Amino acid sequence: MSTRNTEIINPPELQGEKGWTELKIPDTYGKGRAFITGDKTPDRLKVRYFQKQSDKSFVARVWFGPATEGPAGFVHGGSMASILDEAMGAAVWLIGFTAVAARISVDYRNMLPLGTVTSVEANVISVNGRKIVSAGKISDEAGTVYAESEGLYINLPSERFGKMVHYRDEVKESLSGTDKNEQ
After folding, report:
1. From residue 126, how far is each of 71, 91, 133, 152 by CA, in Å?
2. How far is CA 2 from the centre of its chain?
3. Contact predicate 135/88, CB 8 Å
4. Structure pTM?
5. Any bridge partners for residue 20, and if so which?
6. So what's the pLDDT on residue 170?
7. Based on C-alpha coordinates, what's the Rg of the chain?
């Protein structure tokens, strides 16, 4: 007989900042649900994505719940790597590429306590033909950096991505430079 934790988890509301526009990401693009945004399990991750209007950079607020646990009381490195991959890839897509990760590397700087609300920042640092390099960082409100990453993304023909391209284009079109943060 297994004992199941029946504690009710209430993830915090994740807010952007003035000058950030929220990016609405669909739960699914095709045959399944999106790995990060499609999981509505209340004890895993809660994520909200934004674009800073000042420099058009990609940012997110992320809460890591108890189901992301690795070492006792701390977030599993794979959970942090997944968020960094998605953020770096989103930064690449937001500037018009249709790319997938070829390689990501993550440098873990500090153990991330469960239940922490973090900021994730990602931006493109270079483009060379089909190769796009993006960087990302997870930090908290106090400025503690938990992980930094760099990824190589390969641009592919847009027709390979179906509805995702249509969604990306709608998001880009809706980002008019005004503050649309729903605080």
Report:
1. 35, 12, 5, 10
2. 34
3. yes
4. 0.85
5. 52
6. 72
7. 17
- Whole-angstrom distance, CA of residue 120 vs CA of residue 84: 7
C-alpha 106/C-alpha 150 separation (Å) is: 7
The band of 28, judged by pLDDT with boundaries at 50, 70 and 90, is low
Kindly list the distances between the CA atom of residue 169 and the CA atoms of 87, 129, 164, 165, 182, in Å, as whole numbers in the listed order.
Answer: 17, 21, 9, 6, 21
Is pLDDT of 38 > 70?
Answer: no
Q: 59 phi and psi, to 5 degrees?
A: -140, 160
Place of tokens 């469960």: 114
Residue 129 has a CB neighbour count (10 Å cut-off) of: 7
Amino acid letter at 65?
G
